[in-house]
Amino acid sequence: MLSTVLKYLEEKHYCPHCSGDLVLCHAPAVHVGDGLGWGSEYLFICLNDRCPLFVKGWDYIANQYGHVGSYRYMEIPNSKESYSMMVVGKEAFTGSIVDIEALKRQSERYQRQQEALACLDTCVEQNDLAPALTILLDDSARIDDRKRAVGMVTKLNDLACIEPLRNHVFKDPHLQQEVNLAIAQVLAGNFVKECPYCSELIKARAMVCKHCQRELAA
Ligand SMILES: [Zn+2]
Ligand SMILES: [Zn+2]
User: Fold this and answer.
1) Domain range summary for the chain, segments of one domain joined by +
2) CB within 8 Å of 41: residues ≥ 6 apart
3) pLDDT band at 36, cuts 50/70/90?
4) Residues, CB within 5 angstroms of ligand 1 (ion)
């Protein structure tokens, strides 16, 4: 959950070996049920290359097991569990550091989504296209909310929805179909059509586009 991981980011965890800050990382992907999972999507890890545990680990593992590797100190969030985790190289986990900026953006988007959802049911009576568009254009929103938003867009019959909807690629083909249908209904409801050449909106009855002057098939 996003709120959980944002809370983790505020927590400070320190390595008992080097006193350095632990870094929040994505736990390595392992198959559920093979008993190797950490039971957490995230891990706090000491990535300090001068950490004594990491520095001494190379010799220890070479002597003990005869292969290349060392240890990183690791804590599991929301638990008292900590481990010395075996790693095969310096780079292990550096690629899975949690991207804080991306998370913040995700969190802001989530906020906007929640605000729009709260207004979705009343947006038709409020004559407010914004919440319906926000949900419809948000690929992370739930599909039934997005389908509900398509219905609202149709009822609102506001031509301002055409450009944003036309400029969005809907990954779900069924949703795309519903959006295309909604666009057709809103155009018809406003007695306009899109010029097939320049995409400007023109009267449904027009035989010549007033924007590009091209003749339109009857
Ligand atoms: Zn350390
Ligand atoms: Zn035109």
Assistant:
1) 2-96, 106-203
2) 5, 26, 27
3) low
4) 15, 17-18, 20, 46, 48, 51, 73
